[in-house]
Model the fold of this input.
Amino acid sequence: MRIVFFGSPAFAVPSLTALVEAGHDVTLAVTQPAKPAGRKAVLTDPPVALCAQRLGIPVFQPVKLRTEEALARIRQEHPDFLAVAAYGKILPQFLLDLPSVAPVNVHGSLLPRWRGASPIQASLLAGDEETGISIMRMVAEMDAGPVYAIERLPILDADDTPSLTEKLAALGAGLLVETLPLIASGALAPVPQNAGHATFCPKIEREDGRIDWTLPARKLWLRSRAFSPWPGLFCYRGSDRVKVSGISFAEGGAEDREPGTVVTAGPALAIQTARGLLCVGKLQRDGRKELSAREFVRGERVQEGEVWQ
Done:
């Protein structure tokens, strides 16, 4: 089948690779333009563009999709499917109407739960016990289309955004390749979502990583997993911004103390929350190297009773 693939981050690479390995004719990869990356702000193509180049697939990187140029470029491929995995922009209706069979999306949640830009982080933030992949027929409303197939995946305590993304990317690639022939033959019909059960997740912003010590320690632990590696968790010790990682939590503590109070300072570091202690394994002041809790407590002379913001 002739396929135009839309995707940008690493999550989409296994799906693109799997389509080619399955023998499909991926005639074009549509991905985001190159963006500045790193401290030197070097223009860098997204992972899908680099993958497509390695596979010999033409790459199209429009700044905007809602143009005659974009429509003409994609229309000339005469696609049977548009296959979309984390492209990063909403496809306009005139593109959704283009393929002869269907526009399908590889979505990293069990729809209708977690429609939106950050389903993997949302499932971790909520403490969900499972997540999965939904192969959905795309419609104009974001992530609201009927679902062809779902595959579930348990969420482990050790999972964070990178590990869960890697697992779901592989799961999505397999499910996409499995379902496309069934969709094309008419053997698999999509099932409408129950809109009454829909939940939504916004795009993650840098400020989301700021620690609110009035939350329970378990919720901050969930946030540390969801916001790894970006934006991470951070707080302030006086005027110093401190990034924290290697997070665990413990019940109890001195709950009569103000949230943010350092309860244990050396060799471990434990900070009081609204309920329970947040135990920090690594810390990094802005402009400094990352240190273990032991090194940070000793080098920065952290004292029990300090209140961090």
The chain has two domains: 2-201, 206-300. The longest strand covers residues 130-137. The helical segments are 13-21, 47-55, 68-75, 93-96, 119-125, 161-185, 217-226, 293-300. The first helix runs from residue 13 to 21.
